[in-house]
Amino acid sequence: MSPKPAEAQLYVPRFNVMAPDDVRPFVDAVATAQLVTVGADGLPDATFLPVMWEGERLVGHLARANAHWRRIVDGSPALAIVTGPDTYVSPSWYATKAEHGKVVPTWNYSVVHLRGRIRVHDDAEWVRALVTRLTDRHEQPRDEPWEVTDAPSDYVDKNLRPIVGVELEVESVEAKAKLSQNRSDEDRSGVAAGLAADGVDPSSLVQQ
Distance between CA atoms of 106 and 131, rounded to whole angstroms? Predict the structure, then answer.
């Protein structure tokens, strides 16, 4: 008998667990994801797409010319990977380097994995409603937000035809923030200073 495969999960050491209250705001702020599915032939597909997390579903759209959507089996498992800023961390930035030299390079990043069942929506009204919500979400902060209805209706229809909607019914959420939490205050300060010196904003890359 073949061994039972391990349950798929994101590797998250205890000190890298993202605070539950930070997960949805993180996904909302990033607003994009890599959608990963497996076709009927067992081969994986991945597409970067704009997304919105609404209630218990993640919605987005793909280009109709992208063969990925045609390979999706409705109701099959899928994974959406949402990633934030990431950066290389030099061991030379750690205060402890001068103390004992026992330091190595690493990489800081934040990521959320959303798993569930995927469904394709090749429906003009569904896609129009999604694009309208996506547009409103990104335009509202502007002084003069653009609206879908600002463009001629037939022109909008023409530009909606080349896209197809997808909906992930979210069944599990795993979130990781690797932000030097396991380092001392002095080491984290050193990382923040090193990033700033390299012209990188450390605010979302090092735990303050």
Answer: 39
